[in-house]
Amino acid sequence: MSMLKKCFAFFILLVTLWQPSVFAESTNQTQYIFDYANLLTTEEKKELEVLAKELSADYKTAFLILTVDGTDGKGIEQYMGDFYDNEAPGYNKPHGNTVMMSIDMQERDVFLSGFKKGRIYLDAGRLAYIREQITPSLSAGDYYEAFSQFIIESHDYMSYGPDGIIFQWWFQWGVALLLAAIIVGLMAYSSGGKMTTTERDYFNPNGSGITKKHDRYLRTTVTKTKKASSSSGGGSSGGGGTTSGGHSYSGSGGKF
Q1: Beta bridge partners of 251
Q2: In angstroms, what is the C-alpha Rg of the chain?
Q3: Is residue 125 a contact partner of residue 169, using CB atoms and an 8 Å limit?
Q4: What is the value of pTM for the model shown?
């Protein structure tokens, strides 16, 4: 083999070995932690940057953390939307695949959102579940734990595929209605009771007279119970929407 062919073969080998690491890098996102409220130490921020960068590569979706101490009256959801419009995050391209956790320390609001692929894989229901899991850590002031848990759980949910049937609202309502119909049917069947009297209780076959047996109605008892009032537990919002720049997102928000 000539020297030229050997050099070419060596070049192809280098490209083959180097290619996976190239595609593991984001084509757009270079920063993942935007801690404007200064909730993290320098070391914690570095560790979260590494974690977010590594897990974002698996599904080509950027997992971002945004913290602020006040939103100038916008509210955390609108602030998040403006951030996405203006900063153009996204793993694959500007305004690309993104899943973001945004918190406002002034109002103690948290809002989780998903854009592009993130919106498809992490719908409002999944984001609400993740938010409920991280809220105790936020309330306790353990922000590093809450942020890392958000990144890890968001990554894990991406592995389930987009909008599995068990997460579809129409499937959950269908199952609930089916169970309700079965329960009501069983209750209706049971409430009918069994016939406890026959014609023999009233008619004497040995004569033409009526016997002394009879049924006596006693009473009907009605028991009333007070209906428990529902509580929002601090309030929550979600479902998603569209940013001022026209980018659709899924979302779930609440207090901590």
Answers
A1: 113
A2: 31
A3: yes
A4: 0.64
> pLDDT, tens digit, for every residue of 58-78?
999 999 999 999 999 999 999
Label residue 133 left, alpha or beta by phi (over 0 means left) and psi (-120 to 50 means alpha): alpha
Token pair for 205: 């076959």
The Cα angle at residue 240 between residues 109 and 141, in degrees rounded to 5:
20
| Residue 79, number of CB atoms within 10 A of its CB | 20
* Angle of CA points 183, 188, 191, to nearest 5°: 120
Q: Are 33 and 144 in contact (CB under 8 A)?
A: no
Distance CA 64, CA 29 (A): 10
Listed in order, strand segments (DSSP E) in the chain are 33-35, 62-68, 98-104, 109-115, 236-238, 241-242, 248-255
CB atoms within 10 A of CB 118: 28
In tens, the pLDDT along 131-144 reads 999 999 999 999 99
Q: Pull the structure tokens for residue 136.
A: 């105790």
DSSP reduced 3-state for 100: strand
What is the predicted pLDDT for the residue at 171? 54
Pair type for strands 241-242 and 236-238: unpaired
Give the separation between CA 33 and CA 66, rounded to whole angstroms: 6
What the block records as the tokens of 220 is 């009907």
**Position 250: which residue type?**
S
Tokens for 235? 């309030």
